[in-house]
Design brief:
The protein is of the alpha+beta class. It folds into 2 domains: 1-30; 33-127, no CATH class. Helices cover 21% and strands 45% of the residues. It has 2 helices and 8 strands. It has helices at 2-21, 23-30; strands at 36-41, 48-55, 58-62, 68-81, 84-93, 99-104, 112-117, 123-127. An 8-stranded antiparallel beta sheet has the order 1-2-3-4-5-6-7-8, with no helix packed on it. The N and C termini lie far apart (38 Å).
């Protein structure tokens, strides 16, 4: 009898998580966007691993120091660099609206992130890994 109640409790928790926690994850993934990834940043400020997570329509970058930086989705686009056409999303830093990052879609052959200032030329930032 205890096993039956335990299994029922596990099922209730799983349904709750699927409905409330992962609903946004599924929506983002269905649009071809990752919901989490990381890269290694080699320059100042704050070199090291940077983890990105998408929740509540906001990307949060957690830097090696623990500092968190927020980005808002701007629009879907195609970045044409290195004789490639990479599909993805432009996100804009909330504290510095002149700084954009390009996050590649899941189906791109190359998972390369780019950045730009003041809507200028895209520049290679890093290859992303740990994509979900």
């Amino acid at each position: 009898m205890k096993t039956r109640y335990r299994n029922l409790a596990i099922l209730v928790v799983a349904v709750f998580l699927a409905k409330f926690v992962f609903a946004e994850t599924a929506a983002s993934a269905s649009q071809g966007q990752p919901v989490a990834f990381e890269w290694t940043y080699k320059y100042d400020p704050d070199p090291g691993k940077r983890s990105w997570v998408f929740a509540n329509n906001v990307w949060t970058e957690t830097r090696a120091s623990g500092k968190k930086v927020k980005y808002q989705p701007v629009e879907k686009t195609v970045v044409r660099e290195y004789n490639l056409a990479l599909h993805g999303m432009i996100v804009r830093q909330t504290d510095d609206p002149t700084f954009d990052v390009f996050i590649p879609d899941l189906d791109n052959q190359f998972r390369w992130a780019f950045f730009r200032f003041k809507e200028g030329q895209w520049q290679y930032l890093s290859s992303i890994s740990g994509v979900h």
